[in-house]
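Please, structure for the following, as tokens.
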Amino acid sequence: MARIRYDKDADLERIQKKKVAIIGYGSQGHAHALNLKESGVDVRVGLRDGSASKAKAEAAGLRVTSVRDAAAEADVVMVLAPDTAQRAIFEEHIRPGLKDGDTLMFAHGFNIHYGRIEAPAGVDVSMVAPKGPGHRVRETYQEGGGVPALLAVHQDASGEADANALAYAAAIGSARAGVLDTTFPEETKTDLFGEQAVLCGGVSELVKAGFETLVEAGYQPEVAYFECLHELKLIVDLMYRGGLSYMRYSISDTAERGDYVSGPKVVGDASKAAMKEVLAKIEDGSFAKEWIAEDEAGRPEMKAARQRERNLQIEKVGEQLRSMMPFVDPIVAPEE
């Protein structure tokens, strides 16, 4: 069984005695920086010149400097910029300021696992990867809880990389929920697979296919939206609290029967075979190479997909319905 550690296993003073630089102030960056600050850690945020996030970070009471200055003065540098941007940021702004005894940290193993970033030999390289979006990392911390995290050590120059990373995990609240040991390769491959096959790609396609099947059969789009998207949260919440068994206990007998007889027809052998193909491309590095090439080309396929998906009927119907349900705290995703 995997080793899982909690607050009682961590020495918070380890990270409180260090200067920490958070590189980036997006979803994860803002959560890590604020949680660390409120846990008594000396934090600074490193941002590029002209960053729109500078005002937000300063308004939250954080000290903001250039990426180069933040990395140079810190003992611990947590890189929370987008995966595709990290190598250039590291080579130009972070590497020059690293010294023996420093710690280079990540919240995802992509750039270390695929060999895009190589740290100097005298630097610890570790990872604390919360298993949830940054906004939940922040919200659960404020509520007195935390988001579970994965912890890995790639390079232990000091002999204390694991203990220091665990202290960092405790400072952002993850040790309240549990910190599970892993490796950079395992975290990278399972995270990419989970996003593509289940959490984002798989769920999105399942929702769209269900909605379109009902609408094409002549049923009202509004009814199809409620059945195939809106109610999904209610079902996931049951799974979240008690697993598949509790979800099945909570729904009607008719729904449970449908689960058993129809679920395997929708997501069956063909789907599992496709998942294996997805995993193979992640394991052999094909997905990473394709994604990096797409990013370097200006993301033409990504931009086209975003526009196409925004114009789907389910998105238009959903936006209209959510606007009439203020209690769900509706939000419109910004154009990019």
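The longest strand covers residues 124-130. The beta strands are 4-5, 19-23, 42-47, 63-66, 76-79, 103-106, 124-130, 149-155, 179-181.
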